Structure formats: structure tokens, C-alpha cells
Amino acid sequence: MPPLLLLLTFLLPPEAGTEEIIGGHEAKPHSRPYMALVLFTSGEKRSCGGVLVQEGFVLTAAHCEGSSMTVILGAHNIKELEKTQQVIRVRKAIPHPDYDPDTLSQDIMLLQLEIEAKLTRAVQPLRLLGNVTQVNPGDKCLVAGWGQMSPSGTSASKLQEVVLTVQNELKCKSAFRVYSAITEICVGDPRNTKSCFKGDSGSPLVCNNVVQGIFSSGKDDGVPPGVFAKVSYFLPWIKRTMKHF
Questions:
Q1: 112 shares its domain with 178
Q2: Which CATH number does the domain housing residue 224 bear?
Q3: Can you tell me the distance from the alpha carbon of 238 to that of 88, in angstroms, rounded to the nearest whole number?
Q4: Is it the case that residue 12 has pLDDT exceeding 80?
């Protein structure tokens, strides 16, 4: 199927229940060449974000697993056929073995691609460092994604980005039924409206050009904070898994 038709097949209306950026702005085209759009079927056609961490692997959220999984790299406007886009099927989805779909704990997954991505100006991995340093409350990090720009608004066709502030773990412990400071990061100032929302599940939290988190969940009304899987905790599993496959 041509890339444009594939994209249009998977584009979702605002009410479809995907996580997206609120309070952000359009990113400079292809300035985030590590960004991936993950398309899949789970009862209905859905999409998530992701990050290319190696030519053959994309890191995303475990709850983004489904059938007919495809990754699109090098995209800015997902409603147009861009020469920069690479559409690659997923060979194997590898969720963390301790992922719990009921609580969304350990909500992280590697996608092995059928063919390795061709590295271009618009497609570049955000490689994992040997030791990912910890983030601290007050640190400002970037998240990018495609989708709704307000809880009741329409989905954006062009990549949006937003700068979010890491929060004290108590903010998430009071906002969510289950939260672990060991495996998760609390992100987004409750005093403003900037946040990830429905469609950005799986999108990376990037701090000083390092992948620190993978967006897992937020509140139904889109009010921050949100919860990200802590990449530093999962780094041994990520590296071991990529080496094995």
C-alpha cells in the first residue's frame, strides 16, 4: 500500500482515544528526526508515538501493541506524502516481560523493524547512552507528537512539540491510583495546561538530547502531570533485548 494511503487509513478522529500534545507548538520540520509514528490495530485502528533508538529498533509504550503494526519514520505532516517518509512493518513487538496492562506498570516496548531504517537528514536514531543519567524535579524536557491540541480540539497534521517540567513524585502519587518512582517519571506542571494527552503514548521524553522517558498515561481531562516509563531503569533490558534480536 502506498505510504499516503496507509497514513490516511490510520488517521484517527479526535474522539478515537489516542494520546496527544496539548499546549505545544509546531516543530520545525524534521528537527526531531528520531520521532516515529506507530500504527496498529487493537479493536480499532490506532496510533502511538515512538523513538528510533537504533536503525532496526523503535522504543514505545507496551500498551501500543496490536496487530498489523507499522512504523513511519521521517514524517512531519502525516496527511501528506512526503519524500522523507519511510514506512516499515514491525517484525516483532517485544513488550517488557513485567508489563501489567491493568496498572500500566513497566509500560515500555521495543519494536524490531522488518528492515533497518535508512539514515537520512529526516531519519536519525536518538541513541541510548551507556548510562542514562537521572532527571530531577524542575528539569525541563521536550516531548513531541501528532494529534489533538486541546481535549476537545481536532488532531494536528503536523508534528507538535512541548517543553514540560519534571515534577516531584508526590504530584503523581496523589493524582494516580498506582505510581512507582522507581520505574516512572512524573512530568508536567499542574499549574499550566501543557501536557501529553490522548495519541502521544509511546512518545519520548527528551532531556539534553537523551531519551529519559516513554509516555505511558495521563489524566482523562488532560490536566498534567503525566506518567512516563523511566528509561534509565529499563536500560539493561533494552540493551539486552536489542542484542538478542
A1: no
A2: 2.40.10.10
A3: 21
A4: no
Q: Which of 105, 155, 201, 232 is catalytic?
A: 201
Which of 30, 47, 63, 203 is catalytic? The answer is 63
Per-residue pLDDT of 104-142, as tens digits, reads 999 999 999 999 999 999 999 998 877 767 899 999 999
Neighbours of 136 (CB within 10 A): 9
- Chain-wide mean pLDDT for the chain? 88
User: In the annotation, is 63 catalytic?
Assistant: yes
Could you say which of 96, 105, 107, 155 is catalytic? 107
Three-state DSSP state, 155: strand
Is 244 designated active site? no
Active site residue 30: no
pLDDT tens-digit map of 161-187: 999 999 999 999 999 989 999 999 999
- 175 and 150: one domain? yes
